[in-house]
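Quality-control log, excerpt.
Job 1 of 2 completed; input and output follow.
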Amino acid sequence: MKINIACPSTGMQKVMEIDDERRLQNLYDRRMAQEVDGTILGDEFEGYLLRISGGNDKQGFPMRQGVLTNTRVRILCKQGHKGYRQRRTGERKRKSVRGCVVGHDIAVLNLVVTQVGEKEVPGLTDDQVPRRLGPKRANNIRKLFALTKDDDVRKYAIARTFTNKKGVEVRKSPKIQRLVTPIMLQRKRAVKSAKMASIKKSKEEAEAYKKVVAQRQAEAREARRSLISKRRSSRKSAKVAASDK
């Protein structure tokens, strides 16, 4: 079984292969997101804590969190599920995935270092790999450089310079997400004013409708009242004429 170990603090990864079944027995029946002792992999990982983040079997099917089995199953996927992209609206499809329990037929197991031990592991914790890309979100940039809300975040976006195919040196920086600009505030005010105007208009229309309905009902009552009075008068005159004869 191949073990892929990642250390987020250094940005390095190390791949090692373990064929000793007695050492692998300590990994079997463990679930994703569980932490294991580093001494399982060897004495060089003494004091390390490793979290199981995933893996795949010999045919390449990935482990799926929440599927409590150590075999391969076919689950019904829909929009929003991992490992599935909806082609048509409302489409659902069965996909083969592995359970979140480590079994003997796992080919590659991914581990993440959560606690570093006293000794350094060559190729994993003995060096630092700088991040190629910086944060994009405005709040994350502020957090990285300890900025306040008054500082201009655009000046602190991490950019890189490279030479393109035409031989021209180009500076490329990320588009900052969730950046509050005057145009954004203006749009927000415009949307709010349009919403309030719509609410006011609907209230005015409802009031006008109520007045029209009340007027029509009053007219209908008056017409019925006059009709009843006409009928009564006609009956009364008919009775008077009959009594005179």
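Job 2 of 2 completed; input and output follow.
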Amino acid sequence: VHGGIFEMLKRSAVSPAVRRIRRKSSQTPDEILSVEEMASLPSDTRAAFDLLLEDCPTVANTIRVVFISQIYSLIHDKSQADSELQLLESQLVIRRITVAQEVGEYVFVLREELEQYVKLFMHEPTSGEQIPSSENQVAEVFCSQILANHLQPTISLSRLTAILAQAPNLFLPPTKVIAMLKTWGFLTTRPSSELFSFSLPNIGPIIAMVLRGRKEALSFIRRKKFKDVLEKDLLKHKLKTSTLGSKFHMQDIVGAELVRLVKTPTGNLLQLI
């Protein structure tokens, strides 16, 4: 591996896990990487995102999601993480989805996985009946027109209506399409508001599990004599209130700055803040 690549990394701002995945992606068997090859390496945040997706626990009836707190646990420079996330959004690689503010307000998903999920979700047969073509129309227009033409996590009623009015092969009125998307859980809005947020069906139980697991992990640390615990000991602890795993919740509380990570000769120490 060409050592110059790793001199480019901000070692104080990137966790060892990200450096490992960057190192793996940069290996070539017989030659030093060219400038073009080095430039084509994923950003630190993309590497972190891919690593988190690989470790993402499987939750029934939804797709893989990455929480902002997890990203921040691996990319310690938040400005860098935010900038690189915005670039990935503009490149249509990932999509920002609105969730509860208690867990960071947003989660991120791969756009390709989101579109597959939308089409499978809307095309799932019920009671053996053939799916109405209107659902096919809504799935297609949501992916190819709305998601493709509006990158922000929220969208106004006027903007949404304008996109739908220009959508080809759509024979439903915009009000009907919006109502269907709200019913399925891909759009949410507050009463008397004309601003919609992009959402995910069945995301509620995941948010609840994140908050329960966070509370239990912090309680586990709080019960310690000095209100700190070695990272390896927390990872061994089996949480009772969440199936997301101790690793997920360790990343969550570190990235949410609910604990301080201190390097010691015996390993990383998590201290309550």
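Post-run check on job 2. The radius of gyration is 21 Å.
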